[in-house]
């Protein structure tokens, strides 16, 4: 069985490839990628004229909420949302209920994710870094978790305050070659806060979260990474100070990478308006200066990846006074569109860099068999078709995710993933078919 | 026409002046309430303890011939885990015509207005705004000073946690006053560039030539908290008293939204002295609340 993606702009950062050509898939694996070959016979043919053909996107920061919080999202709805967002691999974060701190739970996640009624994307679980045993916080059985299939360990949702325990965790993870995804937040500085400490917090009478709540922990974790040699990935940087600290840490040789979320480089604290809880997230939306500096850091490469931090909540949890609302935004189905609209099209990053930060680089950081269109002989074909020029308006009530808590509802975007392929077609947008002659023979 | 009174930040100068003149007409006996209008039911929904504001609204209702219907956070379904949205939707079907609400969360009044059918009057939402208190204060200043334009108003104390400070700052600056925030760095938000006025950490500089001094309450739990070294030191640095007022305008008036901590924010002599307007503020509170209720229900007769 042969499938051809014909005549699209191939963007593959893993090969530095940016040319118009074909990608050929046989028996669910990529067998060639490059300039068009004459007259190949295909069982299924995708006309990619005007589209980008890119390696399936990778989101290394997603909350699928299972087990325990199925009213917010399930592995099924979350992976369907991922497919619709152009993703073929997502990492699920461990702060579920119970947290992902045992091999049995990792098995559960992988089983559910591979079930036929899920969205068809790869789910790469992230294990909990620590757990509480007899009232004491200690490391999880990371070696066993590694064997069960985790690709990283994280303190996401439960930021580790104890520097000594973090140092031990990094030493141990360095030995096991497990990257740590760090949630950088000093809880004594962020306590009771709900927005950035700045002009808006003063006007709205909301307790502010100072940027230092993030930065002191970014600095601590960078220094510990430098000391231990552990690979550390800083989750969702939001301030210009964090970017500067990471730039310095990289200069010093610390094995540090970082990510930014689309909402942090496209929105500011001013967008909160009159206490709209859909704009509440952690770290909070910051100032225009931060937005400018985050874009600058995307441009110069200090920021390695773009991740959604997809954090769905049930409507009844969000429709409460701002201070009582949970932190987080659903993001899988807007991540690429927001990036194209606010970073790629304005010229901050090239199309190739965009795909690097949303596919190739996160796959490298986590050691996933993804993020490339190069024929490997082992990996399932992961391909996303993107219409970079499609103008559309985002309607949160038409998403696959259970989480309707998006700051982008009603936003006009330019660019959209229109077809997602992960061994087989897992998502096809109506926009792909409209005006396109689809040949199947 | 029904109107919400949620924040002075959003209120036009025309509306502010109209509300103040309406209140003054009631006080002067030039305007009479009641009569042949429909008997309105006003829900007084206090999720946070309040004596004076609640009593003031009740009195305003009685004088207008409206029926106040009391709800409190403790005895009702709110303490049983009901969400604010559901409480407000219930209020809708209790056939209330207007809602007066106090809530511990900043912005809660906006959520209430989104779900309630009639007008909502914010009687204090967290640390955000307390519009009717500011209207009472403005009415008091007008009575004592004859004007607000070009007056220098010093708001002294815990600005960070004060909804009274925010409402007063917006109202008074919209009417042309020069607003100063005075207090320790720890009790003033770090970035005040979104608020009208200037910041002074030094009491003497803040009070110099002030026509009006608004003292803010320093909550007792705050005195022992990390933002204040001690009540004693705070008092030495920021108490409004005869000594510190020496640099102010000779005819300065000293205001306090109450309840005051005598001996902390201001001393006995000042609190009981002729410059202090605390009781005028309470008295005027009833008239501005009458004005606010009528105006929000669209029963003030204005087009």
Could you name the key traits of this structure?
heterodimer, A: about 450 residues, alpha/beta, Urease, subunit C, domain 1, TIM Barrel, 2 domains, 8-stranded mixed beta sheet, 8-stranded parallel beta sheet, B: about 300 residues, Rossmann fold, 5-stranded parallel beta sheet, 4-stranded parallel beta sheet, 11 helices, about 40% helix
Oligomer: heterodimer
**How many domains in all of chain B?**
2
Class from secondary-structure proportions of chain A: alpha/beta
* Element-level helix/strand string of chain B: HEHEHEHEHEHEEHEHHEHH
| CATH fold-level label of the largest domain in chain A | TIM Barrel
Number of strands of chain A: 20
State the end-to-end CA separation of chain B: 8 Å
The largest interface is: A-B, 22 and 25 residues
How helical, in percent, are the residues of chain B? 25-40%
Contiguous uncertain segments of 5+ residues of chain B: none
CATH superfamily of the largest domain in chain B: Aspartate/ornithine carbamoyltransferase
Q: How many domains, in number, for the residues of chain A? A: 2
Query: Strand tally of chain B, please?
Result: 9
> How many helical stretches of chain B?
11
Examine the coordinates and then state which fold CATH places here, giving the name of the CATH topology of the largest domain in chain B: Rossmann fold
% residues in beta strands of chain B: 5-15%
Could you describe the 3D structure shown?
The complex is a heterodimer of chains A (441) and B (303). By secondary structure, chain A is α/β, with parallel strands linked by helices. Chain A has two domains: 2-53 and 379-399 and 413-433, Roll (Urease, subunit C, domain 1), CATH 2.30.40.10; 56-366, Alpha-Beta Barrel (TIM Barrel). Chain A is built from 14 helices and 20 strands. In chain A, the strands form four sheets. In chain A, strands 1, 2, 3, 4, 5, 18, 19 and 20 form an eight-stranded mixed β-sheet that branches. Chain A has an eight-stranded parallel β-sheet with strand order 6-7-8-11-12-15-16-17. In chain A, helix 4 (163-176) packs across helix 7. The model of chain A has no long low-confidence stretch (mean pLDDT 96). With 303 residues, chain B is of the alpha/beta class. Chain B folds into two domains: 8-129 and 285-297, Rossmann fold; 131-281, Aspartate/ornithine carbamoyltransferase (Rossmann fold), CATH 3.40.50.1370. Chain B contains eleven helices and nine strands. Chain B has helices at residues 13-27, 52-64, 84-93, 108-115, 131-145, 163-174, 203-207, 220-223, 231-238, 268-271, 278-297; strands spanning 41-46, 67-72, 98-103, 120-125, 152-156, 178-182, 198-200, 212-215, 253-255. In chain B, helix 1 crosses helix 11 and helix 2 crosses helix 11 (278-297). Chain B is globular. The N and C termini of chain B lie close together (8 Å). The chains are: A alpha/beta (441), B alpha/beta (303). Chains A and B meet through helix 6 of A and helix 4 of B.
């Amino acid at each position: 069985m042969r499938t051809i993606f014909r005549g699209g702009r191939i963007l593959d950062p893993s090969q530095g490839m940016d040319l118009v050509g074909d990608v050929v898939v046989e028996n669910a694996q990529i067998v060639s990628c490059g300039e068009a070959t004459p007259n190949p016979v295909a069982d299924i043919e995708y006309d990619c004229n005007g589209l980008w053909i890119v390696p399936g996107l990778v989101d290394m920061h997603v909350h699928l909420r299972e087990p325990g919080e199925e009213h917010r999202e399930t592995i099924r709805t979350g992976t369907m949302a991922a497919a619709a967002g152009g993703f073929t691999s997502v990492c699920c974060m461990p702060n579920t209920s119970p947290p992902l701190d045992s091999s049995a739970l990792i098995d559960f996640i992988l089983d559910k994710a591979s079930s036929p009624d899920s969205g068809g994307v790869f789910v790469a679980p992230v294990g909990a870094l620590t757990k509480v045993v007899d009232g004491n916080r200690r490391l999880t059985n990371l070696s066993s978790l590694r064997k069960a299939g985790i690709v990283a360990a994280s303190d996401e949702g439960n930021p580790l305050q104890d520097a000594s325990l973090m140092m031990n965790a990094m030493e141990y993870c360095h030995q096991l070659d497990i990257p740590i995804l760090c949630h950088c937040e000093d809880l004594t500085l962020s306590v009771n806060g709900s927005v950035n400490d700045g002009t808006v917090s003063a006007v709205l009478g909301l307790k502010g979260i100072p940027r230092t709540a993030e930065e002191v922990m970014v600095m601590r974790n960078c220094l510990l990474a430098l000391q231990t040699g552990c690979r550390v990935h800083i989750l969702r940087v939001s301030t210009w100070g964090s970017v500067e600290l990471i730039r310095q840490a990289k200069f010093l040789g610390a094995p540090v990478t970082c990510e930014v979320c689309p909402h942090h480089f496209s929105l500011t604290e001013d967008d909160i308006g009159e206490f709209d809880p859909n704009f509440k997230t952690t770290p909070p939306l910051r100032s225009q200066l931060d937005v400018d500096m985050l874009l600058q850091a995307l441009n110069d490469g200090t920021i390695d990846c773009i991740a959604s931090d997809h954090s769905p909540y049930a409507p009844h949890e969000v429709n409460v006074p701002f201070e009582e609302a949970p932190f987080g935004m659903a993001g899988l189905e807007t991540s690429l569109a927001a990036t194209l609209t606010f970073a790629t099209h304005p010229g901050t990053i090239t199309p190739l860099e965009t795909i690097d930060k949303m596919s190739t680089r996160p796959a490298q950081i986590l050691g996933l068999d993804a993020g490339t269109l190069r024929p490997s002989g082992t990996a399932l074909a992961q391909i996303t078709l993107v219409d970079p020029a499609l103008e559309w308006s985002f309607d949160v009530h038409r998403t696959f995710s259970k989480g309707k808590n998006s700051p982008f509802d009603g936003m006009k975007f330019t660019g959209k993933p229109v077809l997602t392929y992960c061994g087989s077609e897992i998502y096809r947008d109506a926009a792909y078919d409209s005006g396109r002659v689809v040949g199947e023979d | 026409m029904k109107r919400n009174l949620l924040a002075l930040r959003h209120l036009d100068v025309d509306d502010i002046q109209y509300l103040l003149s309406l209140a003054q007409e009631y006080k002067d006996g030039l305007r009479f309430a009641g009569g042949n209008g429909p008997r309105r039911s006003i829900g007084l929904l206090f999720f946070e303890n309040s004596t004076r504001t609640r009593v003031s609204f009740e009195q305003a209702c009685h004088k207008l011939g409206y029926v106040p219907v009391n709800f409190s956070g403790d005895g009702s379904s709110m303490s049983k885990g009901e969400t604010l949205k559901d409480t407000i939707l219930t209020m809708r079907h209790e056939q209330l015509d207007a809602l007066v609400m106090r809530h511990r969360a900043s912005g809660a009044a906006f959520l209430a207005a989104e779900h309630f059918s009639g007008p909502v009057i914010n009687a204090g939402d967290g640390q955000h705004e307390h519009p009717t208190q500011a209207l009472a204060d403005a009415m008091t200043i007008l009575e004592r000073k004859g004007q607000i334009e070009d007056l220098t108003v010093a708001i002294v104390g815990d600005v960070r946690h004060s909804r009274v400070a925010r409402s007063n700052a917006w109202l008074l600056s919209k009417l042309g006053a020069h607003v100063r925030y005075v207090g320790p760095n720890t009790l003033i938000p770090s970035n005040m560039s979104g608020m009208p006025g200037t910041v002074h950490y030094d009491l003497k500089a803040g009070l110099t030539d002030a026509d009006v001094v608004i003292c803010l309450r320093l909550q007792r739990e705050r005195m022992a908290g990390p933002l204040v070294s001690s009540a004693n030191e705070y008092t030495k640095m920021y108490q409004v008293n005869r000594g510190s007022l020496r640099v102010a305008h000779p005819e300065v008036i000293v205001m306090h939204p109450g309840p005051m901590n005598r001996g902390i924010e201001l001393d006995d002599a000042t609190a009981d002295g002729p410059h202090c307007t605390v009781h005028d503020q309470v008295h005027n509170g009833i008239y501005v609340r009458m004005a606010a209720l009528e105006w929000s229900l669209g029963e003030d007769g204005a087009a």
